[in-house]
Design goal:
Layout lengths: L11 H8 L3 H12 L3 H8 L2 H8 L7 H11 L3 H4 L7
Length: 87
C-alpha cells in the first residue's frame, strides 16, 4: 500500500480531532483557526454570555449546540459529545 503524498502533513480538521482533548478545546481551536469571535458563535450556541459560559466550562453543550457546531464548523460529533476536561 502506498503512503499518502503528504504523509508528514495533517489536515487541520484531522489535527483538531487528534489533538482536541475535549469539546471546549475543539471549539477554541476552530475559533483560532478560522478567526471567529464570540459574536460568530451566537447563532450556534446562543447569546454571548452563553458562549462565554461554554468556553469557560461553566455550561455544558446541549444536543442542539452539538448539532449546530457539527453542521456549521464540521467538528466531529464524537469530539463534541466527549466529556469536558475540568478546567
Amino acid at each position: 500500500m502506498k503512503s499518502p503524498r503528504h504523509a508528514g502533513f495533517l489536515p487541520s480538521v484531522l489535527w483538531a480531532i487528534i489533538t482536541a482533548p475535549d469539546p471546549v478545546e475543539a471549539i477554541k481551536l476552530q475559533m483560532n483557526q478560522n478567526r471567529l469571535s464570540v459574536k460568530d458563535f451566537e447563532p450556534i450556541i446562543g447569546k454571548s454570555n452563553r458562549v462565554y459560559e461554554v468556553l469557560s466550562r461553566k455550561r455544558s453543550l446541549t444536543l442542539t449546540m452539538i448539532r449546530r457546531l457539527h453542521k456549521s464548523l464540521g467538528i466531529p460529533a464524537d469530539v463534541l459529545i466527549a466529556e469536558t476536561v475540568a478546567g
